[in-house]
């Protein structure tokens, strides 16, 4: 036998870690065994005192422990059934234990995703989730809109795909609404980019979404579901991601408005959030953004006083926000003439405390600089933005964009030095960008205008 003292340090450390992990595992198993024995003895005592059967007590008290053990042993389906049983019986902490078990097995992102499914249908009061901003009370039952958008647009869940295989089994049945679980399946198919199957399932749930449907063949349980009012919204999301703009899209926008006619703010915000989620979806995303903004304009969101002048984000109006998003959509499609026209109108009516105005002014500068090659006009815009904007983001962006132009021109040393010092002091200036601009300005100071 080789003396451990004579073994290499790495070998000894590796062996010690192995032994330590084995000891920890044994301790955990002993704790579970001790707890199980204690519960067994306790159940015998309670059975004699209160005429409750041992099995009944176990069902009420030990379901969560059994479910956890089954999940860790790979018996996922049986585990989920036990968790669902506990949740539907409103067993205290059942949802929290369920989320903890999922997080332990699949990671926090999976637990957050399931919590967003369960939050609107929470069965035991306020739901404490791994995502603290997403807790909702079961007394104010909400819909699946936020869950659906989070799963399909707002979040990158590639690690949890295929969602239909990895995540759908954890979306337990909603005893209050049979449609809930079906909508979750549509969301999974959409996340997996199975758009045709997702649309097919959604239309089978609500045939009125099909432009060729007679519109009067909904099942009674579907009509009774609170989710019916939002099926047009799910259709809009799927078609937006698919990139296939059809006549049904306009129909579904109108249908979504009609079914939520008492919630104008809700409709407006949900459509805007789809548009926001498509900002990095390339040319096809730009086309969809322009289509949706046109539909919002057509339906009065940018013209009716009720909608147009309502404040959004505490920093702009709905009218400005919609046209700013349309401007972004044109830029994404490289339709710079159309983008220039919208941005110019924003410039003519510039308000330094309006978020949409600042974004439009910046984009106008990029069009002058990159597409029209009119550097002096672009520089004027960047100088104005850095000087007048009330938003630190655009003040810094304008400053850096101005430097980027001036280091290619002679005679700007003093202004470049001044602007770089201002940029350094910005709380939004990140280290990597600071190093890049420091190198560029130093090169400009030492060798003159950059090529």
What does this structure look like?
It is a single chain. With 451 residues, this protein is mainly α. The chain is 67% helix and 1% strand. The chain is built from 23 helices and two strands. A two-stranded antiparallel ribbon has the order 1-2. A hairpin with a 3-residue loop joins strand 1 and strand 2. Helix 5 runs antiparallel to helix 6 and helix 20 runs antiparallel to helix 21. The protein starts with 8 loop residues before the first helix and ends with a helix. About 7% of the residues have low confidence.
Helices and strands, with pairings:
Layout: H1 9-50, H2 54-61, H3 63-72, H4 76-88, H5 94-106, H6 108-118, H7 145-154, H8 163-166, H9 179-191, H10 195-205, H11 220-223, H12 231-242, H13 247-259, H14 264-277, H15 282-298, H16 305-308, E1 311-312, E2 316-317, H17 318-332, H18 336-348, H19 355-371, H20 375-388, H21 392-406, H22 413-425, H23 431-447
Antiparallel strand pairs: 1-2
Helix pairs in contact: 3-4, 3-5, 4-5, 5-6, 7-9, 7-12, 9-10, 10-12, 12-13, 14-15, 15-17, 17-18, 17-19, 18-19, 19-20, 19-21, 20-21, 21-22, 22-23
């Amino acid at each position: 036998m080789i003396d451990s003292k004579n073994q290499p340090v790495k070998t000894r450390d590796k062996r010690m870690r192995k032994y330590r992990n084995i000891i920890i595992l044994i301790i955990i198993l002993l704790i579970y065994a001790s707890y199980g024995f204690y519960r067994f003895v306790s159940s015998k005592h309670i059975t004699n005192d209160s005429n409750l059967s041992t099995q009944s007590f176990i069902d009420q008290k030990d379901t969560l422990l059994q479910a956890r053990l089954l999940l860790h042993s790979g018996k996922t389906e049986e585990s989920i059934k036990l968790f669902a049983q506990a949740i539907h019986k409103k067993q205290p902490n059942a949802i929290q234990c369920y989320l903890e078990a999922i997080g332990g097995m699949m990671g926090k992102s999976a637990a957050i995703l399931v919590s967003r499914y369960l939050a609107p249908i929470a069965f035991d009061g306020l739901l404490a989730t791994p995502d603290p901003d997403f807790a909702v009370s079961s007394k104010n039952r909400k819909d699946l809109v936020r869950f659906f958008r989070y799963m399909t647009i707002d979040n990158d869940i590639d690690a949890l795909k295929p969602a239909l295989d990895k995540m759908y089994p954890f979306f337990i049945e909603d005893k209050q609404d049979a449609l809930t679980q079906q909508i979750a399946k549509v969301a999974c198919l959409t996340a997996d980019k199975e758009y045709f199957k997702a649309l097919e399932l959604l239309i089978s749930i609500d045939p009125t979404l099909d432009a060729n449907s007679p519109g009067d063949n909904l099942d009674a349980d579907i009509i009774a579901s609170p989710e019916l009012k939002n099926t047009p919204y799910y259709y809009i999301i799927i078609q937006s991601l698919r990139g296939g703009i059809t006549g049904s899209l306009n129909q579904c926008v109108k249908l979504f408005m009609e079914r939520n006619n008492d919630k104008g703010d809700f409709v407006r915000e949900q459509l805007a959030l789809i548009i926001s989620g498509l900002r990095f979806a390339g040319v096809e995303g730009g086309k969809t953004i322009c289509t949706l903004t046109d539909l919002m304009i057509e339906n009065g969101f940018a013209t009716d006083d009720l909608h147009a002048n309502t404040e959004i984000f505490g920093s702009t109006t709905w009218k400005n926000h919609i046209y700013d998003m349309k401007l972004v959509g044109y830029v994404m499609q490289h339709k710079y003439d159309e983008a220039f026209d919208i941005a110019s109108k924003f410039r003519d009516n510039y308000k330094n405390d309006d978020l949409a105005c600042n974004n439009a002014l910046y984009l106008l500068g990029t069009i002058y600089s990159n597409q029209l090659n009119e550097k002096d006009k672009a520089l004027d815009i960047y100088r104005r933005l850095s000087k007048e904007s009330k938003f630190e983001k655009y003040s810094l962006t304008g400053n850096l964009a101005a430097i980027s132009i001036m280091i290619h021109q002679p005679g700007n040393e003093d202004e470049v030095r001044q602007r770089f010092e201002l940029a350094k002091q910005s709380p939004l200036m990140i280290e990597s960008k600071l190093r890049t601009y420091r190198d560029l300005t130093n090169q400009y100071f030492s060798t003159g205008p950059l090529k």
